[in-house]
Automatic annotation (TrEMBL):
<dbReference type="InterPro" id="IPR005650">
    <property type="entry name" value="BlaI_family"/>
</dbReference>
<protein>
    <submittedName>
        <fullName>Transcriptional regulator</fullName>
    </submittedName>
</protein>
<keyword id="KW-0238">DNA-binding</keyword>
<dbReference type="Pfam" id="PF03965">
    <property type="entry name" value="Penicillinase_R"/>
</dbReference>
<dbReference type="GO" id="GO:0003677">
    <property type="term" value="F:DNA binding"/>
</dbReference>
<dbReference type="InterPro" id="IPR036390">
    <property type="entry name" value="WH_DNA-bd_sf"/>
</dbReference>
<keyword id="KW-0804">Transcription</keyword>
<dbReference type="InterPro" id="IPR036388">
    <property type="entry name" value="WH-like_DNA-bd_sf"/>
</dbReference>
<comment type="similarity">
    <text>Belongs to the BlaI transcriptional regulatory family.</text>
</comment>
<keyword id="KW-0805">Transcription regulation</keyword>
<dbReference type="GO" id="GO:0045892">
    <property type="term" value="P:negative regulation of DNA-templated transcription"/>
</dbReference>
């Protein structure tokens, strides 16, 4: 899966939040009001080419919608971070979180317990 720019991620999150929209509706919601309609439309079409957005035709215009779920995108993004920065090791990620005190030992114990319980079910 190709990567999105931060602006494209912001656009995709609007589709997740609001559902299918025409570019005109998206422009009203988008935080960068200085962005021209045609520029926003070009960005949406580029995201469609990357496979993140799809469309349905209404007369002579298109209504766009997210083609990938937030959950799937999150998993893919996390996988890319782990691969790029942690040598594809989730153990290294957890280690880094514990070392930086972002994950306490108690949280780690709870996580291990949840994993063990899910395997037993």
């Amino acid at each position: 899966m190709k990567k999105l720019t931060p602006k494209e991620e912001e656009i995709l999150s609007l589709f997740w939040e609001k559902g299918p929209m025409f570019v005109k509706e998206l422009k009203e919601l988008y935080s960068d009001q200085k962005l021209h309609y045609n520029t926003l439309s070009t960005m949406v079409r580029a995201m469609e080419e990357k496979g993140f957005i799809a469309h349905e035709k209404f007369g002579n215009t298109y209504r766009y919608f997210a083609a990938v779920s937030k959950e799937d995108y999150s998993k893919q993004s996390l996988g890319n971070v782990v691969k790029k920065y942690f040598n594809n090791s989730y153990k290294s990620v957890v280690s880094a979180l514990v070392e930086e005190e972002n994950l306490s030992v108690e949280d780690l114990r709870k996580l291990i317990s949840e994993i063990e319980n899910s395997k037993n079910e």
